[in-house]
Design a protein that fits this description.
163 residues, mainly alpha
Length: 163
């Protein structure tokens, strides 16, 4: 790395605070992030610094704190977004699965309707489904609280509800 005259000048002007000075400044910063002019002058005298150096230290410390807070907030928001996106994908897949089950149910009812009574059939907890395998597939999606009346209109409204 090469040095220029301006970078050498900046390095000469850069003040390196001692550990004791930083501890004192940090202690005061923890209790108050902005320092009053009188206290700034007094603190500068106690630490052997110029008041401007104390003011700039406080300013830089506030800026670093704000940056760290923004980084933490961003991380939290990103984690929440990723969680919501993941849940959305799961719900989307579940919706697709329910639509497939609904279509299967419609086909079963059409077959049952054509071969037996030709009318409407009620399904509660999978009780009236002809095939036990299909009933087992549908049972997790049907609760005791919900009764589905299967006809062309209700199938359409159930599909619309899931969309």
């Amino acid at each position: 790395m090469y040095t220029t005259a301006s970078s050498v000048k900046k390095m000469k002007n850069k003040i390196k605070f001692s550990d004791e000075q930083i501890r004192s400044l940090q202690t005061i910063f923890d209790s108050e992030t902005k320092i009053e002019p009188k206290k700034k002058v007094q603190l500068a005298r106690e630490l052997g610094l110029k008041p401007r150096q104390v003011a700039i230290w406080f300013q830089n410390k506030r800026a670093r704190r704000k940056t760290k807070k923004l980084e933490r907030d961003y991380s939290i928001l990103m984690a929440n977004y990723n969680n919501l996106a993941s849940r959305f994908d799961v719900l989307k897949k579940e919706k697709q699965s329910l639509l497939i089950q609904l279509q299967k149910l419609k086909e079963i009812e059409e077959k049952a309707g054509n071969s037996s009574n030709g009318g409407e059939s009620t399904i509660a907890n999978g009780e009236n489904i002809k095939s036990e395998v299909e009933a087992a597939e549908l049972k997790p999606y049907l609760s005791g609280k919900h009764v589905f009346s299967v006809d062309e209109n209700s199938m359409r409204s159930a599909a619309d509800y899931l969309n």
